[in-house]
Amino acid sequence: MTTPNFCSSCGHKLALETAFCGNCGSAIRSGVQAVASSAVRKIPYYAEASQGDAYAQERLGRLYEYGEGVPQDYEQAIYWYLKSAERDYPEAQNRLGRLYDRGEGVSQDIVHATFWYRKAADKGHPDAQFALASCYFVGQGVPRDYENAAYWCRQAIKNGNADAQDKLASIELRIKEEDDARAAESHRKAAEQGEADAQVALGTCYFNGQGVPQDFVQAATWYRKAAEQDNADAQRNLGRCYEDGNGVLQDYELAALWYRVAEDQGDDLAEAQYSLANRYLIGRGVPKDFVQAAAWYRRAAEQGNADASRNLGCCYQEGNGVAQNYLLAAFWYRVAEYQGDDLAEANLMELIQCGHASPEPTFSSWDWKAELIEISK
After folding, report:
1. Which residues pair with 27 in a beta bridge?
2. DSSP letter, residue 6
3. Residue 259 and residue 241: Cα distance in Å, rounded?
4. Are 105 and 89 in contact (CB under 8 A)?
5. If you ran DSSP here, which 8-state letter would residue 104 be given?
6. Alpha-carbon distance 164 to 273, whole Å?
7. pLDDT tens profile 141-187
8. pLDDT at residue 10 above 70?
9. Nearest 5°: CA angle at 222, between 229 and 235?
10. In the predicted model, what is the mean pLDDT of residues 284-312?
11. For residue 359, how many other CB atoms are within 10 A of its CB?
12. How far apart (Å, rounded) are the C-alpha atoms in residues 217 and 233?
């Protein structure tokens, strides 16, 4: 008769050939080993497992875990998984990590779970790599680390884990949020020292909700601080705030004023020029004036603004603010089309169909500014 084996930690009676106490989870490194019965010896994989075959040990552990052909026994499952895992068999290491993770057959122990996940992950096991990525993502068993989480997710994807792609998208979003938050804090420190560019950057963080909660009032406040230091980008952005009523009371006159101030800085501010042209076209914040509208469209168009090129083409086609000129209308439509504007392409086709313009070959590269000089002579 075999002497019963008891856990030295809690006194719980142990199952035969077990490596862990089912009550407290303590590892059993010594104790009475029962002689395997003939019935046990007939269990699939038992003979090979007893001879130290890592694959057979993992398969036998799986039979015990799921109760396939044997009574379900988590302690026996862990015993055989551990034998296989200690022979560096990654599938056993992953399964052992999962049992620790879930607390099945042992007391839940996330640190031990990540230990075995890492063992398997280092050997290229995709499920273990995904599990380890999840541990890093939530800070479970390891310090939270989104970069490590992303790394292990990418490894899992590379090795065929189908769930890792969605997880990677979530991780990369968190990385971006952390980067945005660090950037916003850096901008804030410089902005509070009066740096105009940093004030614009911080205002944009608030406007878009990048790294800080979205707050149009804060955005307009920081834009104003920079605008008052003659920063043209801030002046243009503040004009847009007044135009749309974001963070300030909507005021088209102040919008037009700030756009005009920005344009007067003399920088490459085609967007501000285009916005000012639109105001003159419809009389928003300024008197309606087609001549001024066409003039500002041209300034923006000559700086490469496709919307302005298209609208300038419309001015020439309709004779709004300029003398009607189908040649120049077609020219400016082609400039906008060349820059990828689909509406300009449609307008150009209309001119061609009406006989006001001739078809032209498609250009892979085109010095339209040189051609403008030629047709303007």
Report:
1. 20
2. B
3. 11
4. no
5. S
6. 47
7. 999 999 999 999 999 999 999 889 888 999 988 888 888 999 999 99
8. no
9. 50
10. 89
11. 8
12. 17
Buried b (16+ CB within 10 A) or exposed e, 313-333: bbbbbeebbbeeeeebbbbbb
Would the pLDDT of 18 be above 60?
Answer: no
Quote the pTM value: 0.52
pLDDT in tens, 83-101: 999 999 999 999 999 999 9
Rounded Cα distance, 308 and 285, in Å: 19
263 touches 271 (CB < 8 A)? no
* CA dihedral over 196, 202, 206, 207, signed as positive or negative: positive
Packing angle between helix 90-102 and helix 110-122, nearest 10 degrees?
160
Evaluate whether 125 touches 93 at the Cβ level (below 8 Å). yes
Which residue intervals of 123-251 are DSSP H helices?
Answer: 126-138, 146-158, 164-191, 196-208, 216-227, 232-244
Q: Which residue type is seen at 247?
A: G
**CA–CA distance, 65 with 290 (Å, rounded to integer):** 81
CB 315 within 8 A of CB 322: yes
Structure tokens at 78: 């862990």
Residue 13: helix, strand or coil by DSSP? strand
The pLDDT of residue 270 is 78
Separation of alpha carbons 274 and 332, rounded Å: 15
Question: Would you state the structure tokens that stand for residue 20, as one six-digit string?
Answer: 């862990």
User: What is the per-residue burial (b if ≥16 Cβ within 10 Å, else e) of 218-253?
Assistant: bbbbbbbbbbeeebbbbbbbbbbbbbeeebbeeebe
> With 0-12 CB in 10 A as exposed, 13-18 as middle and 19+ as buried, what is 113?
buried
The number of residues making up the chain comes to 377
